[in-house]
Input
Amino acid sequence: MIENNPELDSYIPPELEIAIISLEKAQQDLIAVGKWLTDVDISDEIIGFHIQQAIEKSLKAILICYKIEHPRTHNLRLLVDLCQNNNIEVPSTFSQVDIFNRFAVEWRYNLLPLTNPSPLDRETAYNLATFVWNWASQLVKGSSN
Output
């Protein structure tokens, strides 16, 4: 008779573990944004950066979990396309994620103008990022069953 081995029962594949960590980090970005949504002292650039990061980490969690190779990039469109090109059904609302590419690391530190021509709709951005995170969390959770 084979007895249960606690070490084997608790084994998590490395890609799943990394995907879970990526989702936890994305959730931390969302928690920060949630606290800053109405704070006028926090700039749209900071809010946008953390929104972009939450979406990026959520999408990368999916790619990692499903063992889909991806370049080191902050381009959200590319990450969405990689999901779609690998038969992962992506909600149509994800077409909006492109607008957050300008808040990625390169732009945040180098190219983002001091004045933004159109203010960020913080609540809509937060809701979209939360939707992406929830979707990614469900896919990762589903892959572990």
